[in-house]
Hints:
It is a single chain. This protein is of the alpha+beta class. Helix content is 17%, strand content 34%. The chain is built from two helices and six strands. It has a three-stranded antiparallel beta sheet. Strand 5 (69-72) and strand 6 (78-81) form a beta hairpin. The radius of gyration is 14 Å and the shape is globular.
Amino acid sequence: MKYRKKPVVIEAFQYDGDLMDSDGAFYVPSWAVNAFHEGVLYYDNLNGAPTELYIKTLEGIHHVSVNDYVIRGVQGELYPCKPDIFEQTYELVD
């Protein structure tokens, strides 16, 4: 049998290596800021300095590379997606 994925609208942002500008103000969506404050999105710290971004998911901890998209799914879950997969799967909604 074959199945087609139902059309679903998701929210996402492309990770550029940071979540805040040089003044310390977040420039990612509010749901990402909330996830950061709740520890769902977090940085691994090396000698007190943030290094790599991770997401806690139901499947475990996932690394977010620069240029990956961070997706908020239909039930509020977060997960990373590689840019090529994201661009093949999603299109911008007005």
